[in-house]
Amino acid sequence: MKTIGLTSLLLIGCTKSAPSTDGTGSTDTGATDTGATDTETFTIWSGWNHSWALLSHRISLVRVKAGEGGTAESGILGGDWSTGESWSDDVNYRIHQQDVTSSTLTVEHGERSLIVGPDGSATASSLLDIGDADLVVLRGFEINTDIAQSDDYPTDYDPALGYTSRGFGIGVSLEGSEVIASSTILWGPRDRADVNSAVPHAQTGVTVYWTAISGIDSKTESSFSGGQELAHTPPNSPQEGMSEPLDWSGIGIAALTSIQLSINDVDGGDGGDYLRSFGAEIPPSESGDAPSELSAEILNTSLIEMAHMRMDYDVSAVWIPLDPEKNTITGHTVEGNHPIGSHSVPTAETD
Predict the structure, then answer these.
(1) Is residue 342 included in any domain, yes or no?
(2) pTM for this one?
(3) By C-alpha distance, which of 49, 61, 43 is closest to 337?
(4) Which parts of 103-194 are beta strand (E)?
(5) Is residue 25 part of a domain?
(6) Which among 140, 142, 184 is positioned nearest to 165, based on CA atoms?
(7) What angle do CA 49, 335, 293 make, to 5 degrees?
(8) Which of 183, 197, 160, 167 is nearest to 300 (CA)?
(9) Is residue 93 part of a domain?
(10) How many domains does the chain contain in total?
(11) Domain that holds residue 310
(12) CB of 59 closer than 8 Å to CB of 81
């Protein structure tokens, strides 16, 4: 995903250590100083996957965020066929994390909130408290349609019920001592008339969670992209995501700096679809050895598939080699199943 250069129609939140004026932004160091050895302990995120258990759904909420102490945050909502109003569903999740104890690295965790309007993209900046960092990586994100809408938004549809999707993206980059957060949110009409009439006016809240890192001696930055037509033999077409091998080596930490997942009509139309499964992930090794594979998917397989679609992905990742005598890395995957809504989730060992 290319860093978006267009300023959002609306921006909220500001990442500072002091309280923001509207209360939507925050920063924390996220590091634990053990004192005697002058080390810091923190968690680095390396991707996720959400897969609905029964059906595909609209997107109204997607949330994932790395946590400390073997926990993470996961959240999802679809339309009224996921919430229990017409039907209910739950989600299978995977969240990849690396716990790092380092005497050479310093980190700052933060977040930036923004609103993506009908033009589909937004960007905003945050000032670092630790000064110039060497790198900023993603720590997660949230997409939420249940926010205030413009005056021209239709009165007969509740934005909390979401929309059919053409994909989404998030990214972070550094410009001096500023973190630049960006997002693309693309909706496409392919639903009831009231849903479709709301799509051209939709405002979507996005929060980008990030980690800035100082003290890096070297890094390998890599970009990955690909696409495929998705099988379309409903019901429940046999669809799979895509994977690429990683040629990294040694001991270190893997992270993501941008993710763009797109799903579009094979015939070139502008309609979206209900989503069944989506994510971009680098499963870490338990020992801190270089991971072997990156995977990405955005799929619409279900009992009812609205159209023949194509998936595409663009992912930027980074490998940071570390000296094992000065750094301890433990990789793990937080995985399981949870009902709709936002949840603090445990690691696989305690799930």
Answers:
(1) no
(2) 0.88
(3) 49
(4) 106-116, 121-127, 135-144, 165-175, 178-187
(5) no
(6) 184
(7) 55
(8) 167
(9) yes
(10) 1
(11) 40-335
(12) no
